[in-house]
Amino acid sequence: MATPTLAHFKLPQIDNEPMLNYAPGSAERVKIEAAVKEMIAQGTVEVPVVINGEKIYTGKTCEQLNPSNHKSVVAKFHEADAALTQKAIDGALAAKAKWESLPFNDRVAVFLKAADLLATKYRYKVMAATMLGQGKNIWQAEIDAAAELCDFLRFNCKYAEEIYSQQPPKNAPGTWNRTEFRGLEGFVLAISPFNFTAIGGNLPAAPALMGNVVLWKPSPGAVHSNYLVYEILVEAGLPAGVIQFVPGPAEEICGHAIASPEFSSLHFTGSTHVFRKLWREIGNNIDNYKSYPRIVGETGGKNYHILHPSLDQDGVRHAALQTIRGSFEYQGQKCSACSRCYVPASQFAQFKKDIIEEHAKITQGPVEEFHHFSGPVINKFAFDKIKSFIDHAATDDDCEIIAGGKCDDSVGYFIEPTVIVTKNKFAKTMTEEIFGPVVTIYVYDDADFEATCKLVGETTQYGLTGAFFAKDRDSIVQGSNLLRNTAGNFYINDKCTGAVVGQQPFGGGRASGTNDKAGSWSLLTRFISTRTVKESFVPIENFVYPSNAI
Ligand SMILES: NC(=O)c1ccc[n+]([C@@H]2O[C@H](COP(=O)([O-])OP(=O)(O)OC[C@H]3O[C@@H](n4cnc5c(N)ncnc54)[C@H](O)[C@@H]3O)[C@@H](O)[C@H]2O)c1
Ligand SMILES: N[C@@H](CCC=O)C(=O)O
């Protein structure tokens, strides 16, 4: 039965999800503490593969460990394989026609409802899973699993509505022109990282909202929280098959999906080398696809803070505090985390003193000791990798560790927030992505500000985020111009992390990604294939034109 269109519906007002503050004794603090305790008491959770609404327990399982205490298994998840991936593709394609023909308001309602369920009924549960599974403290879990994910789900609806309202401005007499924003033919493959529950949710949800069907391969480091998000979408009314939840071996699942002629798009967030590998696989398979696949990927970074010589004492202190936050929040495991810092020689003594004094106030420990600013890194692989950077700096004559540097994986994967000062502008820790709580400072001559801006752009292959601290407007304009192509998200007198959906659309260029800007309308345009429709109302009477008259 055709669906009648009986009105143009207006979306509810879309605003950022208000962030709660979780001060000790507050109502929300009591609730999150209770949710964490309940989740610990519940023990290991079993997570299935979900295909066409069916929960599949394959029996081939993998464990997600609690990074604060690696003896504790957060989740045992069942793994899909190539055969199940094919079943997921077939099921998704079968679900597509009904899903994309659902009226826009009904599609939107699923995601708005999911956001409301997350903000209320499931807020503390998803936060607790993000804390215990991904090693976030309360505040980091709130800004990710509650606020950012609600914002993605809601703002996507607003942006989709704006896209749908873009119609041809002109119609010749007797005709009517329209634009349809179709989903892509085939299916989208969404591959998500461990570090943001919100990104996990957005990678499949954004294309699904635009009428696509999606295979979601979550990160093994975030399976529990991601599965809860999946269940919320289902409770909100997402039809079976529209998003297929397929955890398991990345190469087997993703390789099979990318080899399918029906593969229409990659929506990826993760490391640069994995994205490049996938891009190559897609390129190698180009003759077999029904359509040219859309490749969307947000990847690594080597983000910077740079201080201008114009800063006064307050400005330097502000930059030092923002550097502590930008480098060490969530143990530096944000793609946007500050990892290198350029300080003029005239300000270095004060900056160093401020950094060391503030660093001494950082406490670190398991996430269920709720007051800690710093927690564990995600797993043994990350621990060993980050430690190797610190070990390298410890033996490098050009480098001095001025704060932190200790690593302990006896119970959880703890790495002290570490500050290195280097004389080598191309030191290993100035050039390579570490993805951990390590920041390296390079001191430049005040007279070399312009050259240092050039250096910022030439030191790494990345271009994700950067922050510039300066006092007067002329310096701000100068720095902003010189640093234009070094970052997709550029901050003036603020830290280089903490982008908010609806406020700072997020993404970078160069090796940091395709810069399609998560949390904006432009990302959504990657998952649509427009159809232009012209309708004529009046029959023609002759095929010749006046100019053909003799
Ligand atoms: N630019 C951004 O917006 C952004 C946001 C978050 C994280 N990141 C980046 O993500 C990285 C950290 O996340 P991570 O450790 O989860 O990244 P990762 O690249 O190790 O994993 C990301 C996803 O890719 C999958 N994967 C790994 N190898 C694969 C393969 N061979 N084929 C197919 N899939 C494969 C993983 O299982 C996971 O689901 C960092 O580099 C960080 O900068 C970027
Ligand atoms: N919204 C986040 C994105 C981080 C990616 O890992 C930030 O800017 O901190």
Automatic annotation (TrEMBL):
Annotated catalysed reactions:
L-glutamate 5-semialdehyde + NAD(+) + H2O = L-glutamate + NADH + 2 H(+)
Q: Which UniProt keywords apply?
A: NAD, Oxidoreductase, Proline metabolism
Q: Which GO terms describe its biological process?
A: L-proline catabolic process to L-glutamate
State any single GO MF term. Answer: L-glutamate gamma-semialdehyde dehydrogenase activity
The pathway where this protein functions is:
Amino-acid degradation; L-proline degradation into L-glutamate; L-glutamate from L-proline: step 2/2
Question: According to the UniProt entry, what is the EC number of this protein?
Answer: 1.2.1.88
Where do the Aldehyde dehydrogenase domain residues begin and end?
A: 60-532
Q: Which GO terms describe its cellular component?
A: mitochondrial matrix
Tell me the PANTHER family matching this sequence: DELTA-1-PYRROLINE-5-CARBOXYLATE DEHYDROGENASE 1, ISOFORM A-RELATED, DELTA-1-PYRROLINE-5-CARBOXYLATE DEHYDROGENASE 2, ISOFORM A-RELATED
Q: Which family does it belong to?
A: Belongs to the aldehyde dehydrogenase family.
What protein name applies here? Multifunctional fusion protein
Task: Please name the source species.
Answer: Thamnidium elegans
